[in-house]
């Protein structure tokens, strides 16, 4: 019994995907976009902090800038990794969103309530999108 050349092997990868992983769902693309925006915002804050450094607080300004640039760059790398999909990116993204929820809690009340709401909504949306079964199926390491 021979198969026609156009039919894929029964256990082979889907057409057009040499890795054998399922296609990346829209939920994961949206999560990656939100994480990239968060990362780019931190990079912008890091650069802005560098320009605000004064002589009496130079060490604090430089270390804050380095932290923001590193954290932001890491988030951008994780966002890129979610579109590849690299299996290791889910952990750092979830951790970053949990940290963001803590930061949002510290901004609650007063003039910074809007910042708190924006951080909370963004973190919760990313957490839901990354932990959805369709996203988890793509980011799980099935090679064990």
Number of helices: 5
Give the quaternary arrangement of the chains.
Answer: single chain
- Helical residue percent band: 55-70%
Give the number of DSSP strands: 0
Domains (count)? 1
Order of helices and strands: HHHHH
Counting helices, strands and paired strands, the structural category is: mainly alpha
Low-confidence stretches: 9-16
Task: Summarize the biggest pleated sheet.
Answer: none
Look at the structure and give the mean pLDDT. 86
**CA-CA gap between termini:** 33 Å
Radius of gyration (CA) equals 20 Å
Strand content: under 5%
Overall shape: globular
How does this model look, in words?
It is a single chain. This protein is mostly helical and 144 residues long. It has one domain (26-133). The chain is built from 5 helices and no strands. The protein has helices at residues 26-51, 58-82, 90-106, 113-131, 133-139. The radius of gyration is 20 Å and the shape is globular.
């Amino acid at each position: 019994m021979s198969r026609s050349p156009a039919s894929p092997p029964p256990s082979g990868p889907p057409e057009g995907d040499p890795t054998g992983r399922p296609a990346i769902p829209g939920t994961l693309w949206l999560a990656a976009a939100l994480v990239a925006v968060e990362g780019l915002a931190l990079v912008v804050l890091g650069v802005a902090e560098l320009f605000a450094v004064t002589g009496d607080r130079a060490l604090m300004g430089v270390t804050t800038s380095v932290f923001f640039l590193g954290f932001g760059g890491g988030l951008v790398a994780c966002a890129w990794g979610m579109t590849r999909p690299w299996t290791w990116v889910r952990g750092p993204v979830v951790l970053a969103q949990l940290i963001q929820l803590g930061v949002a809690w510290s901004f609650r009340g007063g003039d910074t309530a809007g910042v708190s709401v924006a951080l909370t909504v963004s973190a919760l949306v990313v957490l839901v999108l990354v932990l959805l079964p369709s996203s988890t199926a793509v980011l799980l390491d099935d090679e064990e």
